[in-house]
Write a structure and sequence with these properties.
Layout lengths: L2 H10 L10 H13 L5 H12 L8 H13 L7 E2 L14 E5 L2 E6 L11 E5 L2 E2 H8 L7 H4 L3 H5 L2 H6 L8 E7 L5 E7 L9 H4 L3 H5 L17 E4 L6 E6 L7 H15 L3 E5 L8 H10 L9 E5 L6 H13 L3 E5 L7 E4 L3 E3 L6 E3 L3 E4 L11 H5 L11 E2 L4 H5 L4 H13 L5 H5 E6 L2 E6 L5
Parallel strand pairs: 9-10, 10-11, 11-12, 12-17
Antiparallel strand pairs: 1-15, 2-3, 4-5, 4-6, 6-7, 8-9, 13-16, 14-15, 18-19
Helix pairs in contact: 2-3, 3-4, 11-12, 12-13
Length: about 450
């Protein structure tokens, strides 16, 4: 990470009550539009027009900030954004947190005074169907729906922003309508709190599933050891190795990748699973050689890559190098990735000096379908091109709340089925279930869980 980005990360983690924006913030946004190369000519003209209307909002920080987010979103590019995780450092947020799953919106974390809301299905937010709020959020963050969904709950949990967007009347409390076990609905008012996240959580946000893991008595392997950015494991029943990369940067990644390659060469697993579902990216150069080597280290089996909407930026490049190197031996499993195969990235963070918000602009092209030969392409991609037809899941495995709450991992279950079908002498039952003695009795649990 560049030094400037490290400084701005620290800036983003400082608690600041949203200050009134000034003309300096308007000027910064005008500069932002000029620097961000992701705009089409029509979108750039629309963004500049929106900048000129900002002075009318100088007295309303939340509305000004949402319009700044909208100006970035007009580029319809995942890397062109006002960073949503920083909202919690400036606006009171509900302590009751929401999780968006394939089958709906649920309460996944709550303080003791609202513990009765845990696991409830959410029906409405401030009197509006949550689906309406979700659709409205597209105005404030561009790119793919799968990526927006990684941050939409931050918007849903911040009353001041909801008010500014026309979905509420009070900036200090959230009204949730939830459904009980018998289908009866209840509306609860929740006072918001200013509880700024620290460190990288203020910059990248904390993955919803890690926030929700407190609900689980038994955690699946991918949720175990949440603070470890890289892991190598050989779970019972997998007939292979499991590699988890939550990021593609940071101290220790080079040593981890080198040690992992050495271990895989020594142990010669039949299959290799690479879990990228929490990986927002980093430096694509760090993982390229590793990904290109993996197909040759799956001895007779396959390489499985697990993805989600949080698989983004350099993680998508890593996935592209893996698919390109392994072809049909690489099977993508899970949910759709967080961006298209052509996008704009790199760039820098540009602060709005008085409001205190950070804007990310993009100034270099990435294209993983053509190899990106154009002069405006990112240098590393021009030097080491990626040419793939698709990086969408070959084995879709949407995560539903019931599976999550039961400690099941549909992605690893799908992999288990695929391994069983491709190696019949390993009974499917041995891949799916393992037993353990608990409290004098015996119970079964998914094999792909931590012990």
């Amino acid at each position: 990470m560049r030094v400037l980005k490290q400084i701005l990360l620290a800036f983003a983690s400082i608690a600041l009550i949203a200050a009134a924006p000034t003309k300096a913030d308007v000027a910064a946004l005008r500069d932002y539009v000029a620097r961000n190369r992701a705009y089409t000519p029509v979108a750039r003209a629309e963004a500049l027009g929106a900048v000129e209307r900002l002075p009318a909002l100088l007295g309303d920080p939340a509305r000004f900030e949402l319009e700044a987010a909208h100006i970035a979103a007009l580029a319809d590019n995942g890397h062109s954004a006002l960073l949503p995780p920083q909202w919690a450092a400036r606006y009171p947020r509900s302590p009751v947190h929401l999780g968006l799953f394939a089958d709906g919106l649920y309460v996944v974390a709550a303080p003791a005074e609202h513990a009765q809301l845990l696991r409830r299905r959410v029906v409405a937010i401030n009197g509006q169907p949550w689906q309406t709020v979700r659709r409205a959020y597209a105005r404030y963050q561009g790119g793919e729906q799968a990526f927006r969904d990684q941050f939409v709950t931050l918007f849903m949990e911040t009353p001041a922003l909801l008010v500014a967007a026309g979905f509420g009347t009070g900036p200090d409390q959230l009204r949730l309508t939830v459904e009980g076990r018998r289908g009866r609905r209840e509306t609860v008012s929740i006072p918001a709190r200013l509880e700024p996240p620290r460190g990288e959580a203020a910059f990248l946000g904390r993955p919803m599933l890690l926030d929700a893991a407190g609900l689980l008595a038994v955690r699946p392997l991918y949720l175990d050891e949440p603070d470890r950015p890289f892991r190598l494991a050989f779970p019972a029943g997998l007939d292979g190795a499991y590699v988890q990369l939550k990021t593609t940067r940071g101290l220790g990644i080079d040593a981890f990748l080198a040690a992992t390659l050495a271990t895989l060469r020594s142990r010669q697993p039949r299959n290799v699973v690479v879990d990228l579902r929490f990986n927002l990216g980093g430096d694509l150069n760090l993982t390229r050689d590793f990904m290109q080597a993996l197909p040759g280290l799956a001895h007779g089996g396959r390489v499985y890559a697990i993805t989600s909407g949080r698989t983004f930026s350099a993680a998508i490049a890593s996935l592209g190098y893996l698919r390109q190197a392994g072809g049909e031996r690489v099977v993508i499993v899970g949910e759709p990735i967080g961006d298209r195969l052509e996008f704009w990235a790199e760039g820098e963070f540009l602060p709005l000096p008085d409001l205190g918000a950070l804007m990310l602009y993009a100034d270099q092209r990435h294209n993983y379908m053509t190899g990106c030969p154009e002069a405006d392409c990112h240098g590393s991609i021009r030097s080491h091109p990626i040419r793939v037809a698709s990086l969408q899941p070959d084995l879709p495995a949407p995560l539903r709340f019931a599976d999550f709450a039961a400690g099941r991992d549909p992605a690893m279950d799908a992999i288990a089925r695929d391994i069983a079908q491709n190696r019949p002498r390993l009974p499917y039952a041995e891949l799916i279930l393992a037993s353990e003695v608990v409290g004098g009795g015996r119970r079964t649990r998914p094999a792909f869980t931590s012990r």
